[in-house]
Write a structure and sequence with these properties.
It holds the Pfam family ATE_C. It comes from Halomonas kalidii. There is one protein chain. The protein has 245 residues and is of the alpha+beta class. The protein contains five helices and 14 strands. The chain has an eight-stranded mixed β-sheet. Strands 1-4-6-5 form a four-stranded antiparallel β-sheet. The longest helix has 16 residues. The protein is globular. The chain starts with 14 loop residues before the first strand and ends with a strand.
């Protein structure tokens, strides 16, 4: 069992609720989102505190679900010190040993955007991120803050994946990963490998956790998160170890 409470009080911050809108994960459900006041700077101290309460970042916005009568979205994180890669994950790591990894600041890069646009058009043409645009990419994945990073994955110099993440005081927060959807790369499972790479990076930095965002039992797209064990879930204000089923 693990529990944390934020060291910085958040009671003086201002928050806003969105109007109910269609849920992106569960068909036929409505969702409401709690946002930190956009006038508040998402600086490291505020972000560190809110991340412990289940908040995520999208562009300059810090948010978390706040849906009446629904608690399906559960914040989850990997305790780095206790994580043990499964046999499949170890095999996957060996399969991707020929990739080179490079950390970059979260600034706009045309090569990154070209890969992102191709990924969205190929894998998510039926989603709310389609069609991709420069403005959409900039507002979503670029940020002029020193904690915001992009991890590049290259195969013989060719960009094949990018993982956006934030480096916080108590862990790395995975924001979004996009990759080359070419069938020849499918066996590399680049999305899963990106998470494994963040775990290794957190371990190298001496950071205790990797935050994976929200897990929803009924959402098949989130099943992959259960493969990273042990996993901790946010229960109110406390993080507790659990084995989702």
């Amino acid at each position: 069992m693990s529990s944390n409470t934020p060291r910085q009080p958040v009671r003086d911050l201002r928050f806003f609720l969105t109007v109910p809108h269609a849920c992106s994960y569960l068909e036929g459900r409505e969702a409401t989102t709690l946002f930190l006041d956009p006038q508040e700077s998402p600086g490291r101290g505020v972000y560190d505190a809110l991340a412990l309460l289940g908040f995520r970042r999208s562009g300059r916005h810090l948010y978390r679900p706040h849906c009446e009568g629904c608690s399906a979205c559960i914040s989850v994180r990997i305790p780095v010190a206790d994580f043990v890669a499964s046999r499949n994950q170890r095999r996957l790591a060996r399969r991707n040993a020929d990739l080179s990894l490079h950390v970059r600041p979260a600034i706009f890069d045309s090569e990154h955007y070209t890969l992102y646009a191709h990924y969205i058009r190929t894998r998510h043409a039926d989603g709310d991120m389609y069609p991709p645009s420069h403005e959409q990419y900039r507002t979503f994945l670029t940020l002029d803050q020193d904690y915001a990073r992009l991890l590049e994955f290259r195969l013989e110099g060719r960009l094949v994946a990018v993982a956006a993440y934030d480096q916080l005081e108590h862990g790395l927060s995975a924001i979004y990963t996009f990759f080359d959807p070419a069938p020849v790369l499918d066996r590399r499972s680049l999305g899963t490998f990106a998470v494994l790479s963040l775990v290794e990076r957190a371990r190298d930095l001496g950071l205790p956790h990797v935050y994976l965002g929200y897990w929803i039992r009924e959402c098949r797209k989130m099943n992959y998160k259960q493969a990273f064990q042990p996993l901790e879930m946010l229960d109110g204000r406390h993080w507790r170890r659990t084995l989702p089923v």
